[in-house]
Amino acid sequence: MALLPRPKGPRWLSLPLGIGLMVVVFWLLATLLAPQMTSYDPMDMVARRLQPPSWQHFLGTDALGRDVFTRTLYGARHSLPIAVIVVCLSLTVGAFLGAISGFLGGVADNAIMRLVDITLSFPPMLLAMAVAAGLGPGLGNAAIAMVIVWWPVYARLMRAQVLEVREREHVEAAVAAGASRPRILLKHILPLCWTPVLISATMDLGQVILLAASLSFIGLGATPPTPEWGSMISEGAAQFYSWWVAFGPGAAILTIVLGFNFIGDALHDHFDPRSK
């Protein structure tokens, strides 16, 4: 029986990666060029209320006569930046504490890991809801709540990487050569620990967008009339038979989450030696 031809090129250069990049690039352009991509203002009443999709309004209008397509495009200006901010802050805090924990060990390791265990013992959504409810509605407070929820994930991942790398021969050689502890950590350990953490951060961008939309949906994130995807879906839930009100922001969340997941999965295949 003839063998099937093997695909040419690296496995990570695949169709899902191309789709993911196109989706993410589209929403990045929407974030930057939303006023040029539509002729309506997201806050203005431009037609009859709850008008179905048409050539003038691709996704119809909502209960206040605002263009849903326009509000969906402008929603990217809130959802994408907050995702990037939350992931960057969580990654910075978590990676720093995880590196200190894994490198120093002892009392510092026990203290940091117990704090991580306490935070991870709560369901992420419930913890984010509790923090956001305590701080009050608003995207800024929702971002703080999500950072509190997300940093332990990176701390645990970075600690595991540091514990593995610090036992390698080149680190032992640096110790024998008399290198200082900060230099050993910064020059010989951390450069080899970032790959899994960055791959995880890429995939978490979509999850943060989903969590931010969930907080806005229940009234703990963006407040009306802000065109944010979660709050738009909440408005659409009150108009069950006007399906287009929630369709636009729902499709936006679905595509951006899948896009980031496709990119993260492709990066994992590229850097994981077991996939070669």
Question: What would you note in describing this structure?
Answer:
- By secondary structure, this protein is mainly α.
- The chain has a single domain, classed as MetI-like (MetI-like fold, Orthogonal Bundle).
- It is 70% helix and 0% strand.
- Helix 1 packs across helix 10.
- The chain is elongated and about 75 Å long.
- The relative contact order is 0.16.
- The N terminus is likely disordered.
List keywords for this structure.
276 residues; mainly alpha; MetI-like fold; disordered N terminus; BP-dependent_transpt_permease; peptide transport; MetI-like
Compose a concise summary of this entry.
The protein is mainly alpha-helical and 276 residues long. The protein contains 10 helices and no strands. Residues 1-7 have low confidence and may be disordered.
